[in-house]
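Re: weekly structure request thread

Next one in the queue (498 aa):
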Amino acid sequence: MTIDNNSIKKTYRHNYHLMPERGWMNDPNGFSYFNNEYHLFYQHYPYDTKWGPAHWAHAVSTDLIKWKPKGIALTPGEEYDKNGVFSGSGIQIGREHWLYYTGHIDSLLDTKYDSDLKKKPSTVEGKETNSFIRQVQCLAKSVDGLTYHKYEHNPVISSNQIPLEFRIEDFRDPKIWVYKSKFYMVVGASSKKNVGYVLFYTSIDGLNWQFLNKLTLGKDYGTVWECPDFFELEGKHVLLISPQEVNRVDNHNKNIHTTMALIGLLNYNTGEFVVEFEQELDQGFDFYAPQSLLTKEGKRVLIAWMNMWHEKYILHELGHGWNGSMTIPRELSLKNGELFQKPYQKIEGYQKNKIEFYNLSLDGEYDDKSLYGNSQRIDIQFDMQNSHKLAFELFKGKREGLLLTFDKNRNELTLDRKKSDYAIEYLTANDCTRSQFIDLSKPISLTILLDVSSIEIFVNDGEQVFTSLFFSKELGERVVIHSEGKTIFKKLIKWEIE
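Done, posted below.
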């Protein structure tokens, strides 16, 4: 039984971001190109608006912006995935579309919990574990990109193919690629000492796999590395990971479950990955488990779950019948060894009613109705040489609003979402701001994307990105700017987005 369509409330539904038709959405899965369409699957629970045993829902697109739902592609039910079809990736092999995913088995969901059993380690395929959970890697195939059949010899990587020092209950989210006619896979993992890793595997045929190598950065980088993604970009190799339970340090890792890019070089013969640079991918509240693909024109594009674990899920609490969405697709590039993100260019085809301001001098409040809206793009270039604070109020009503502040005295950018009647609490009740260092002695460029209940802010051509949900009871649409001292706006351009 699924959620009744008549119970779906549209108040906070986006205009140009992918959402579930109903029910719960988390990680993007199987992000790939097949049969002249882009395919995006996602973790889905159709029976409630909170997490439940994972299915793969399916959507297709010709431009990565507007998506057509195609129902549920994979459901749990086999012995190796009976408690969840967890995250994974997709790839075209010959004329077939192959989906690799994690089969999740949790015996506690099948049998009554016994306190005596809790004290005894269980043994699975010769490995001792204190958990009743195990995860294996599986395969499903399709010839038409609509109907997918699970491989008859699943799993393709079972528990006895995991090195002994790793936990069989934290072995998930395979990413597959082909290099020089050979298959490679990277899987998220955790050691028995609760240290996050990725494990590299290789295969001649994509069916029979051998362990190749492992990578960690140590205990300060989380307990398990989820949802790895791997690709080559401008002569470097990039490994994306989503480490869980990372310690907060100053303004970094504020979400505890974060997302990182490791940039370096992979030796395909040995599986050794040499990390040359590391960075957090998004400085906002709601960004996790990114996946990437190479577009048909050769662009590397990323998309992520626009939400976060351990948040207060407003849509669930309000009974809206749906919960979750994806970020806008983002084109990736490297500048001085660092990963930059910008909105994928196809969004421009949905922009209309352009409003332009040039060489605008602002000292005080600027409240122009032509800037109002809750589904729009704003591109800005400003200089704070003669000002010390600049603030943008977005989704503004009489008492609610999302605040973006630039403080020159502190060289700090802050996103503050506490002024909402539906404030999203994260871990603690007052955890409502995200801040980062920014050099405000130099001109700054911004791209701001608003979409009813979300914001994505790209700073200095995507050197920093802030992603956040925001639920306003007033549904405010005002955009108001405040400057303490004279700020010069070289340009301020706004488009509505359909």
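The two ends are 33 Å apart (CA to CA). Residues 347-497 form a domain with the Jelly Rolls fold (CATH 2.60.120.560).
Next request, please.
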